[in-house]
C-alpha cells in the first residue's frame, strides 16, 4: 500500500470501530501493570513546564492518565471518530486529528511523546519518518515512550498480523531501537513483556524509553 492508502484504511477502520474499541479497552491500563509502570517512569522523566503528547491517543484514556500523573497532556489521532470520543469523555482536554509523521507542534516544543500501540499500523518503510518527527517536536532532554507488539528476532523489521481494525505489524525490538538511534534519540531503558503476558495473541510487548540529548 502507498502512504495515502494505508492511512485511509487505518482511519476508516478506527472510525467504524471507535465505539466498540473505546468500550473494549476502557480498562486496558488496569489490566497491564507493566505498562502502568513504564508510563509512570515516563511521566516522572517528562515532568516540567512543557506539555506532553499522546500520539495515537484513541479515546483518550492514556492521555487522561498522563494528566492524572501531573502532566500537561494532549492527544492526537488519525481517526476523527476517536478524537470525538476523546473530547466527549474528557471535555477539558486538548485532542486533535493528526498524522504521526506531520504533528501540529513546533520544533522542540514538547517535554515528552508517548505512543502506545499506535505505530503498529505504519508500514515499516514509513517508520523512520515518524521517528524523525518525534525527534523534531521533542525539546532537548525530552523523552519518548514507544510501546508496541514486538518480536525479539532482528532478522527483519516487521511481521504483519491480522489486527481486527487494520493491517498491523509486530516489530523487531532491536531494529526499532536502531531506527530511533538513527533519528537522533538515545536509549534510556527497555521493558519486554513475555508472550504469556499477552492474553490476546501471545506476542512480546515492548516499552522503549528514549531521550533527545
UniProtKB/TrEMBL annotation:
Gene Ontology process terms (BP): methylation
InterPro entries to which the protein is assigned, alphabetical: Methyltransf_25 (IPR041698), SAM-dependent_MTases_sf (IPR029063)
Keyword tRNA processing (UniProt): no
Pfam families: Methyltransf_25
UniProt key word Lipid biosynthesis: no
Residue ranges constituting the Methyltransferase domain according to the UniProt record: 52-142
Keywords tagged on the record: Methyltransferase, Transferase
Recorded GO MF terms: methyltransferase activity
Name listed for the protein in its UniProt record: Class I SAM-dependent methyltransferase
Source species of the chain: Glycomyces paridis
Amino acid at each position: 500500500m502507498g502512504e495515502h492508502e494505508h492511512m485511509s484504511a487505518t482511519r476508516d477502520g478506527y472510525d467504524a470501530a471507535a465505539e466498540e474499541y473505546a468500550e473494549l479497552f476502557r480498562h486496558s491500563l488496569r489490566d497491564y501493570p507493566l505498562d502502568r509502570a513504564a508510563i509512570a517512569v515516563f511521566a516522572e522523566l517528562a515532568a516540567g513546564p512543557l506539555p506532553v503528547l499522546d500520539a495515537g491517543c484513541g479515546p483518550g484514556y492514556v492521555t487522561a492518565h498522563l494528566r492524572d500523573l501531573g502532566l500537561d497532556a494532549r492527544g492526537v489521532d488519525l481517526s476523527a471518530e476517536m478524537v470525538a470520543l476523546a473530547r466527549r469523555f474528557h471535555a477539558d482536554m486538548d485532542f486533535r486529528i493528526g498524522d504521526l509523521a506531520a504533528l501540529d507542534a513546533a520544533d522542540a516544543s514538547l517535554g515528552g511523546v508517548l505512543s502506545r500501540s499506535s505505530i503498529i499500523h505504519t508500514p515499516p518503510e514509513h517508520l523512520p519518518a515518524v521517528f524523525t518527527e518525534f525527534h523534531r517536536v521533542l525539546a532537548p532532554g525530552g523523552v519518548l515512550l514507544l510501546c508496541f507488539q514486538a518480536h525479539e528476532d532482528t532478522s527483519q523489521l516487521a511481521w504483519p498480523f491480522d489486527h481486527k481494525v487494520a493491517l498491523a505489524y509486530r516489530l523487531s525490538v532491536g531494529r526499532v531501537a536502531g531506527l530511533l538511534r538513527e533519528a537522533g534519540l538515545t536509549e534510556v531503558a527497555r521493558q519486554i513483556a513475555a508472550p504469556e503476558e499477552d492474553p490476546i495473541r501471545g506476542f512480546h510487548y515492548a516499552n522503549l524509553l528514549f531521550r533527545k540529548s
